[in-house]
Amino acid sequence: MKFDDAITIKDIAKALNLSTSTVSRALRGRYEISAETKKLVMEYAERMNYRPNPIALSLKEQRSKAIGVVVSEIANNFFSQAINGIESIAYNNGYHVIITQTHESKEREMVNIQHLVSRSVDGLLLSLSCETTDLSYLKQLHEKGFPIVQFDRVTNEIDTHRVTADNYMGAFQATEHLIAQGFRKIGHITSTSNLSITRERLQGYRDALEKHNMSYDAGLVKHCTHGGMIYDEVEEAVESLFQSRSKVDAIFTAGDRLTTVTLSALKNVAKKYKQVGFIGFTNTNLAELFTPPVSVIRQPAFEIGQSATELLIRMIESKRPVTEFENRVLPSSLIIRESSALIPS
């Protein structure tokens, strides 16, 4: 059956010689309709493959039954898995998902959000871009009561639900693992300090060094302000770690794209220098296929997407304004492979 030929409530009513209001009530299981009539209507609707018109439903409920999603990049392994989690909950609850990308641009983030709101989405799932520092337009939207749930890259300036991985502990475990392997000059390639994930992972890195009486060297920390979107920026960061006064013997990367791009840059840069140990945040399923297989901190991306969507739908469907919010922190996993083994000198 073509979409344009889809059966309507009026068609069912005419075929069964019932009023449209009776058919509508029967389809909704209303108590005032007899069991016999409900059975008749439901069986006919099923046989004719009847599906409710989502536009008509949204007009009646004053909802679009659509959720807007704003992420930096769909191709990012973490975000693609988080989106799968978002869709799994949204679709099961009758919501459509509209996905937009910022490519780490604050201007594009603003335009995307304005576009989504103008299309009357019922709420937003938001992960901030690298460039975002001015949150005034988001605060105004939130203060008007528009449902927003933050995930992964979050801010405390907007008091709403937040769902993240345990960035601090993931970074702490990664750094401590490298130290336990015998590495002593651990470089850290991370994103802009604007992001919550950058600050939390840097703190985990620093605290692991401190726990093992190793001094923190700011020269071994390299910020890539575009989060790995620009290859040359990452390659320059890798090169500078080898050329610093304290030459690295291991590298820890703090982001999904940063990890995969650094691995690519290392193939070029490391030809001129010694091989180094490596571990990074990434959700790529190909990590074990690299040579050597790559040790990673893996985030529960799918579960983060599910959790954020559950919270957003709860906000959208709440009969009263939501004033109490959750900060959900889900554990990451340390997966040890050959890349983080100490290389014999």
TrEMBL record:
It comes from the Bacteria. Residues 7-61 form the HTH lacI-type domain. Gene3D superfamilies: 3.40.50.2300, lambda repressor-like DNA-binding domains (1.10.260.40). InterPro entries: Cro/C1-type_HTH (IPR001387), HTH_LacI (IPR000843), Lambda_DNA-bd_dom_sf (IPR010982), Peripla_BP/Lac1_sug-bd_dom (IPR001761), Peripla_BP_I (IPR028082). One of its GO terms (molecular function) is transcription cis-regulatory region binding. Residues 7-51 form the HTH cro/C1-type domain. It holds the Pfam family LacI. Keywords: DNA-binding, Transcription, Transcription regulation. This is LacI family transcriptional regulator. It comes from Chitinophaga cymbidii.
